[in-house]
Amino acid sequence: MNNIGLIGYGNARWIAGVHYQQGLLYGNSLLPPDQQAAFHLLLRREQHSPDHYQPVRPYVQGLYALDYFPSLRPEWSNRLRYVLRKAILERKLAYPTNDFPRLLRELRIDAIFPANDIIAPHRSVRQVSWITDFQHVHLPQFFPAKEIAFRNRVFERLMRLSDTVIVSNQFSYTDAVRLYPAYAHKVAVLPFTMYLDQHWSEPDVATYRQQYGLPEKYLLFPSQFWKHKNHALLFEAIRLLRQRGVDDLVLVCTGSPHDYRAPAYFQQLQQFITEHRLDSAIRILGLLPRPDQVQLMRGAAAIVQPSLFEGWSALLEDCRSLGKRVFASDIPMHHEQITPQTTLFDPHSANALAECLETYWPSLKPGPDSSTEATAERTYQQRIGQFAQRFTTICQSVTQRSLCNS
User: Fold this and answer.
1) pLDDT above 70 for 406
2) What pLDDT was estimated at residue 14?
3) How far apart are CA 68 and CA 99, in angstroms?
4) Which of 96, 255, 280, 312 is most buried, most CB within 10 Å of its CB?
5) Coiled-coil region(s) at which residues (predicted)?
């Protein structure tokens, strides 16, 4: 059995990272005991909330909150940053302790994942990193020049120092091998499945519709308001539909409104809604608790995913797990996740999306569909177990390779 140090990844600003790790932990619990890894969850106090991991707490050997994580910075720099942050933000003096090396020894950790933010040379444990995608290479217009340079430096360092680098799809694998051919042997493909509460199919969806003031039939796009998610085109498609007399289609959007790369973007979208009098056609609910989001997905007549770029679409995985009809952008990454319930459209044409929705909307029914959900739930259990099994296989390969080289 491998002892894995699972490093907290993601937070309220990027909750998908937390859901990724929840899926990994739950999937591992479904494996035969002799195939399971032993996960030890290592969180940084000021960045990660233990509450986010409460649903999967039974599936970890232990949860440890650290003052800070080590990095490539000198040790004194990490400590000084911690002291200053406490003094400025909380007006109190606190001296941090570096528990990370001690925990690695005491817990007999074989590998850490994801090692992204704490990658270091000459570490005694194996370091497995995760590159979500190479969006900055394909869509540089969405990134400041400084961030592109920063990402290039970080990714090169990960490829050079990691024992293995995980990517989530074949498209990203091709990018990694093309951009870093000297480290191609380190790259492993691991598609993921997001965690759903074990009792996700039991609640009454009508309660959630009522709670959020939604109509019985609606189209849902649960995603952060990042520019590449393509809300602007989606909103224009809704405007076209209203112009054509399709008045019964209500779009519901959930997700954080903040895009650090384009701070004014959300306000521009709100202005578009106001200018075109789409308040009754587009409902924005903000970031919801994960259980609420899942129930609104169940209740939707369909899901829409207009994104211009994805590493591995967590939303499409959720649609597969819930058995949902989905209208998805025709991009290479989505081709790897197509199901019979998926309809593709040109993500650069609002008219193409409007025509697609206009064609299918009259025949779509509000969810949930119990028969479809029952089938989807069975395949979900299989897929999330396979996700964890592939991960443990990757870690075993890394540690065995280390033993052979020692």
Assistant:
1) no
2) 76
3) 8
4) 312
5) none
Boundaries of domain holding 25 = 3-193+385-405
pLDDT of 25 reads 97
Q: Do residues 300 and 285 touch, judged by C-beta distance below 8 A?
A: no
Instruction: Give yes or no for a cis peptide into 366 (omega within 30° of 0).
Output: no
For residue 123, count CB atoms less than 10 angstroms from its CB and return exposed for 0-12, middle for 13-18, buried for 19 or more.
middle
Q: Are residues 185 and 209 in the same domain?
A: no
Distance CA 15, CA 18 (A): 5
- Residue 73, pLDDT above cutoff 60: no
User: In the chain, how many H helices and how many E strands?
Assistant: 14, 13
Report d(CA 193, CA 92) in Å as an integer.
41
pLDDT, tens digit (0-9, with 9 covering 90-100), for 310-366: 999 999 999 999 999 999 999 999 999 999 999 999 999 999 999 999 999 999 999
Count how many domains the chain has. Answer: 2
Residue 253 included in any domain: yes
Task: Give the 3-state secondary structure of residue 304.
Answer: strand
What's residue 65's pLDDT? 83
Same domain? 66 vs 212: no
Domain of residue 142, CATH code: 3.40.50.2000
Under a CB-based contact definition with an 8 Å cutoff, are residues 46 and 66 in contact?
no
